[in-house]
Amino acid sequence: MSSQPVPCKNLHEWLSFLEGLHTSEIDLGLDRVLTVFRDMNIGKIAGCVILVAGTNGKGTTIAAMEALLQSAGKSTGCYLSPHIHFFNERVRIDGRNMSDETWVEAFERVESHRGQVSLTYFEFTTLAALFIIARQMPDFALLEVGLGGRLDAVNIVEPDVSVITSVGLDHQDWLGEDRESIGFEKAGIMRPGGVCVYGEVNPTKSILQQASAQNVDLRVFGRDFGVLDADSEPATETMTDSPVFLAQNSAQQPIPDAPVPVSYQMADGDFVRTVLSEQSIPVSNRLCAIQALALTGVRLDKIDIDHCLSLISVPGRFEVDKNNPKYIYDVAHNVHAAEYLSRLLQATRQRRRGKIVCLFSALKDKDSKGIVSLLDKTVDSWAGWPMQVDRALSLAQLTAVLGDNATNAECLPTLGEAVVRAENIACDRNDTIMVLGSFYAVAEVQSFLTNRANRSRGVDEKGIEV
Questions:
Q1: DSSP class of residue 130?
Q2: Domain boundary among 296, 331, 353
Q3: pTM of the model
Q4: What is the pLDDT of residues 254-308, one digit of tens each?
Q5: At what angle do helices 179-186 and 205-213 cross, to 10 degrees?
Q6: Fewest Cβ atoms closer than 10 Å to its Cβ: which of 180, 185, 298, 393?
Q7: CATH code of the domain in which 171 resides
Q8: 243 is a domain residue
């Protein structure tokens, strides 16, 4: 197949072209994208492919695997979505974002094979990402599923290991109204006779049924790997007896005063015990990464796992602003994520002993009421603003959400006013401003603060003196 040349000179023009290419932003199904993928003849993209799906924790789990693999001397190619600031963040090769020129070349290749097939923005960029990674042929390709799993464009790739980090309520319009329906969609990344790692103690029946029907080797957090029971002695030794795990998800486990003993299983069936220190990254995400890699045969016992993972900083995941530590950013946009965030905020209050103010905005299709009512027990004040994106809650809608579900809240017409309000409340050095609700919310606030700091220093957004 061949298409007419598209007069796109740079990455910005290509992204604008892609936004208007298809009739809808989301159009689940594999037929169209698989047709172009086969015509591109991409073939094998890496020595080992790991697909990661889940309501929350996908990007964090991939970041953990990437760090562990690099410490083990393995090359990596990562595909992530969405990005926070720059589109280039979506593909990393050995930890480096890809250049504009690399993306443009990949888009040109996809377009040259697209023909008359209509692709969504995500499908087109997924094909370009797979082309970029395949040209590098890394030891490991770590691919984040965009939405659901079964019908997501990333699922055209055959995985060596599949990972499902969690199943919670989000994107119900596309995936179904309950965990069972959503679990069925995410189970679609499993392959007959394959291996899958699941990151919660309570897998849905739909996942268990699909694993059984397809003879999948399913490893479940809290059953086959996880945090060891208090009676188990932590030790870095290999053992054959199955250990006893805590039957609790990360958000339910108490914050420990010392490193916690954990265990995972090697490809040969032996269990390995080690310890993980308390971090903002959920222990279940870290252990999913460890367990998935161990099943591929990577010798993690040769590296300092805990130290390696302690160095990870995932953008927008309880990210502390390096220039202004008062600010913490989290892209939590559903109740499932807010449950874990609540635990982190409680620990932050105990550590900093100051007020917690939330800068909050959200999209219309999210359970904003559930998020606010859950976190309001920990938050002292809220400052809301309407984001500058089409699907964002309006000022009136946001006012209603906060007014009905928060004890002390105020909504402002602009982000600038909301920031000023939050900073006036969180005026003590021990106070915290928590930015949450959406990838867009985090991006808007970080861009606003960066531009404000640049103006005060007399430079533009690129740091050039004006």
A1: H
A2: 296
A3: 0.89
A4: 555 678 899 999 988 899 999 998 888 889 999 999 999 999 999 898 899 999 9
A5: 30
A6: 180
A7: 3.40.1190.10
A8: no
